[in-house]
Write a structure and sequence with these properties.
single chain, mainly beta, 7-stranded mixed beta sheet, about 50% strand
């Protein structure tokens, strides 16, 4: 059974940085992890879930929501089965629970809180 576990969330002041990690496990074959696009989503209280960033499986092409473009960077390490989200210049509007996804699997989320 595939499992995704996010970490790295926390409390940070306006303008600060955090690096989120997502550890994947449960693959029958080590190569399976690299075959799927991965994404970070976030959901703030009372708001709809938002797709934050995507990284493809084929060539690591990345795309970002306009709200985070230029501040966030998504990356992956297929050998370690890890997904990352480097978040810089954080704003209170970035406060949310952040989730990583692989295929149809979701992690449990990690809370990011940015104070003004």
């Amino acid at each position: 059974q595939v499992q995704l576990v996010e970490s790295g969330g926390g409390y940070v002041q306006f303008g600060g940085s955090l690096r989120l990690s997502c550890a994947a496990s449960g693959f029958t074959f080590n190569s399976t992890f690299s075959r799927f696009t991965m994404r970070w989503y976030r959901q703030a209280p009372g708001k709809e879930r938002e797709l934050v960033a995507t990284i493809t499986s084929a060539d690591d092409t990345t795309t970002y929501a306009d709200s985070v473009k230029g501040r966030f960077t998504i990356s992956r390490d297929n050998a370690k089965k890890m997904l990352y989200l480097q978040m810089n210049s954080l704003k209170p509007d970035d406060t949310a629970v952040y989730y990583c996804t692989w295929a149809t699997y979701w992690g449990q989320g990690t809370q990011v809180t940015v104070s003004s």
